Amino acid sequence: MSNENNQVERGSERKTLILALIAGMCGDALLSWLTMSEISFSIFPLIALVLAVQALYQEYLRHPVSEDIPLVGLACFFVGAFGHSAFLKAQYPEAGSNFFSIMVSLLLLLWVGYRMGYIGRRD
């Protein structure tokens, strides 16, 4: 019973982190539309952002949150935002360098991997 309960909590944590990543990408897409003239408006990032935030809220109501998840979720949000920013700047080089965005994304991903136990774990 305990192992099954642990699997459900682990799946819920992953769902929360993926939704935070999606919310970060959608938030950056909307911000890029407002600040970059090369980007045209699309309704889909707005719809995805609303659905991701709603699903995050429902997940918060359904399952209790462990200690590490809020901070790791915030890091995943920033990974999504900086990752999308790096992608756009690779697509539109005149918008600026994507070096900072890539470095922040990679450092945050390493930190998330360490906090979730994927890096430095001994079996």
UniProtKB/TrEMBL annotation:
Concerning InterPro entries, the annotation shows:
DUF1422
- Quote the protein name from its UniProt record: YijD family membrane protein
Tell me what organism the protein belongs to: Vibrio xiamenensis
Q: Which UniProt keywords apply?
A: Membrane, Transmembrane, Transmembrane helix
Q: Where are the transmembrane segments?
A: 16-33, 39-57, 69-87, 99-118
Superkingdom of this entry's organism? Bacteria
Instruction: Quote the Pfam families the UniProt record gives.
Output: DUF1422
Signal peptide location: none
Would the keyword Protein biosynthesis turn up in this protein's UniProt record?
no
Q: Please tell me whether the keyword Oxidoreductase is annotated for this protein.
A: no
